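Tip: read the tokens left to right.
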């Protein structure tokens, strides 16, 4: 049986970055850039006023109450027509180009304006201004032809604003992987139905779709397949058109655990079955190699918490790798137990726990949890604590590794 690390390596070896595609920049947010971006403009494109006020010659300010004749008004989006010369100023708004001759801008709050016979005069209360005051020189933040972003960069809202500034309405990005989700089991009914005797509702379908969305993939719901080879085959062949197919249930050792055989019949090659892990031991992983990119197929265990643990450990990093993110193993962070815990058995256990930051250290409190079907208690947890294989009593103050949920 593979260890968690061996299973991760085997999965990531098959998770190839998706081919780049062109997207509008708003839609591209959250994606990884697949080209270098150069600017087609200087920014700012001209020396510009950083405040509303008056553009003037700094040397004109000789003491209190300097009076200057106002030549014109320039607002953002317009260009000055006048040249400032000694004794004059131009009323200017934030963002407008600085007129020729001026070398500083005084804030309107430091001035008083009077108008007589249609001629505006400004009285400047500031006694001096540095040359360049309140002026942002042309190309301060970037120059035309500068490379502003390189391939591989994650596009956040800040990058989207920059892309717009440099004239890119569309960019090449790595698209989000499409992930089909199929629940299997004769006992399952959808959340909208009341279960009859022997039935339960399909939790994994909605749970896995939500996990896919949170991991940056695009989920597609394939509903429920009954534990029959024909039903499984039909739904599996639908799911194999997506980048990843997630099945839940049917991968253990029961008489109706038909998923591995159904996947093999559909041409999916098994890479491994079973991992030394609790919960999550029955995990099945394989690939369909017949299309240009391998399709990844995960047979996740039926119990919801087992499915969740396998998703976080194995599916999320595969989605990240296919999305062009540097392959992310879940970040294991060390924390200190605030509650004792008894670990038994020969499999490492990822145990639902409450993680919290206290005095710049992470504390870990394993929850009261009744096993891998117990979703009700799971909602109190915000992380998993890793207890290595082997029987051991952990005490308050012991260190354990954790991953967030
Ligand atoms: P299986 O691996 O198919 O034997 O399923 C293991 C356990 O998980 C059984 O108790 C199933 O009823 C349960 N289970 C399977 N699929 C789901 C699902 N989609 N939602 C909730 N529980 C499930
Ligand atoms: Mg089943």
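Filled-in amino acids:
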């Amino acid at each position: 049986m593979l260890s968690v690390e061996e299973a991760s390596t085997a999965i990531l070896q098959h998770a190839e970055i998706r081919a780049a595609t062109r997207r509008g920049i708003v839609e591209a947010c959250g994606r990884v850039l697949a080209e270098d971006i150069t600017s087609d403009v200087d920014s700012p494109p001209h020396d510009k006023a950083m405040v509303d006020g008056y553009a003037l010659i700094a040397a004109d300010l000789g003491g209190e109450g300097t009076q200057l004749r106002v030549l014109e008004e320039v607002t953002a989006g317009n260009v000055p027509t006048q040249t400032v010369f000694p004794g004059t100023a131009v009323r200017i708004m934030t963002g407008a180009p600085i007129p020729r001759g001026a070398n500083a801008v005084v804030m309107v709050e430091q001035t008083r304006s009077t108008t007589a016979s249609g001629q505006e005069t400004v009285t400047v209360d500031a006694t001096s201004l540095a040359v360049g005051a309140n002026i942002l020189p042309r190309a301060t933040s970037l120059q035309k032809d500068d490379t502003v972003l390189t391939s591989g960069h994650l596009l956040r809202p800040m990058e989207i604003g920059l892309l717009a500034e440099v004239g890119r309405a569309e960019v090449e990005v790595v698209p989000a992987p499409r992930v089909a989700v199929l629940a299997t089991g004769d006992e399952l009914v959808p959340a909208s139905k009341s279960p009859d005797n022997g039935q339960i509702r399909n939790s994994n379908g909605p749970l896995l779709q939500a996990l896919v969305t949170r991991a940056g993939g695009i989920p597609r719901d394939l509903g429920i397949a009954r534990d029959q080879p024909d039903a499984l085959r039909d739904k599996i062949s639908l799911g194999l058109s997506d980048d990843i197919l997630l099945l839940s249930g049917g991968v253990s050792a029961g008489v109706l655990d038909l998923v591995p055989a159904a996947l093999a019949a559909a041409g999916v090659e098994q890479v491994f079955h079973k991992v030394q892990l609790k919960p999550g031991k029955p995990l099945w992983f394989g690939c369909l190699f017949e299309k240009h990119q391998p399709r990844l197929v995960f047979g996740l265990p039926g119990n919801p918490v087992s499915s969740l643990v396998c998703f976080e450990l194995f599916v999320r990093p595969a989605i990240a790798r296919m999305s062009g993110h540097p392959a992310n193993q879940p970040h294991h962070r060390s924390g200190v137990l605030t509650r004792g815990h008894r670990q038994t058995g020969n499999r490492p256990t990822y145990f639902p726990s409450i993680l919290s930051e206290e005095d710049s250290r992470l504390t870990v409190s394993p929850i009261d949890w009744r096993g891998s079907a117990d979703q009700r208690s799971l909602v109190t947890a915000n992380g998993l604590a890793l207890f290595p294989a082997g029987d051991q009593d952990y005490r308050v103050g012991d260190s354990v590794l954790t991953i967030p949920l």
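The CA atoms of residues 229 and 261 lie 8 Å apart. The first strand starts at residue 21 and ends at 24.
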